[in-house]
Amino acid sequence: ILGTLVLCYLVSQAMLMFKGRNSSKLRYQATVAQLKQYMRHKQLDKNVQKRFLTYYEFRYQHHFFRESEILNTLSSQMKLEIGMHSCRKLVENVTFFNNLPVSLLTRIVSQLKSEIFLTNDVIVRSGQTGNCMYFIATGTVAIYTELGREICHLEDGAHFGEIALVMPDERRVANVIAVETCELYRLDRNDFVKTIHPYPMLWDRIRKIATERHEKTMVYDASH
């Protein structure tokens, strides 16, 4: 009898472990099933449905977690550690972050907000007032002038939109469109000013980059 009880206990523990490992995947499948049902109910176009599913697949990688609830249970230090780990490739690839003091780098990373854009999504629209800049974690974006002329492509590790941070009254001078599914990290102007204020040399460096890009875009449009 004792042997049978031990066997039952081991089997039950194994089942709990299996269930725990697969619970996030099951939640993802249930969420996607609910999404499909919702889209059918709304009679959405098939292309729209495909974009929704592409977004979910890229965003959750077939596992669904209630991340905000999990993070709310953690200390500020643990949240920072998760943020630094999540952005480690971004920090390694973005030249903007090179040679920054660790304390400043940590503060900037803690202010970044992840956003996902699908192919052909307009990320930045020319003529609109900007209030943030973006860092490319993965993916490719195309930069176009206000007149629709392509300037270049930017890939992993690049950044754009810094003009909005240092020239608050200046409108966007270019359109930025996702060439493929992209994961970007957004830095809002208010967070930027608050974080960078004690570092005037970095402020000047970013202002120089923004001014050069602004002039390049204006000259490109004028010469074509």
What do you see in this structure?
- With 224 residues, the chain is of the alpha+beta class.
- The protein has two domains: 1-65, Helix Hairpins (Orthogonal Bundle); 86-223, Jelly Rolls (Sandwich).
- 55% of the residues lie in helices and 17% in strands.
- It has helices spanning 2-41, 46-60, 67-72, 76-86, 88-93, 102-111, 163-166, 189-196, 200-223; strands spanning 113-117, 122-124, 132-138, 141-145, 150-154, 159-160, 174-178, 182-188.
- The strands form two sheets. A four-stranded antiparallel beta sheet has the order 1-8-3-6. Strands 2-7-4-5 form a four-stranded antiparallel beta sheet.
- Strand 4 (141-145) and strand 5 (150-154) form a beta hairpin.
- Helix 1 (2-41) packs antiparallel against helix 2 (46-60).
- The longest helix is centred in the N-terminal third of the chain and has 40 residues, at 2-41.
- The protein is flat and about 50 Å long.
- The termini are far apart.
Notable characteristics:
Jelly Rolls; 224 residues; 4-stranded antiparallel sheet; 17% strand; Helix Hairpins; alpha+beta
List the helices and strands and how they pair.
Layout: H1 2-41, H2 46-60, H3 67-72, H4 76-86, H5 88-93, H6 102-111, E1 113-117, E2 122-124, E3 132-138, E4 141-145, E5 150-154, E6 159-160, H7 163-166, E7 174-178, E8 182-188, H8 189-196, H9 200-223
Antiparallel strand pairs: 1-8, 2-7, 3-6, 3-8, 4-5, 4-7
Helix pairs in contact: 1-2, 6-8
Mean pLDDT, nearest integer?
Answer: 81
Continuous helix count: 9
Please give the order of strands in the largest beta sheet: 1-8-3-6
Structural class determined from secondary elements: alpha+beta
Instruction: Please name the fourth-level CATH homologous superfamily of the largest domain.
Output: Jelly Rolls
Distance between the termini: 87 Å
Organism: Bracon brevicornis
Protein name: Cyclic nucleotide-binding domain-containing protein
GO molecular function: voltage-gated potassium channel activity
Pfam families: cNMP_binding
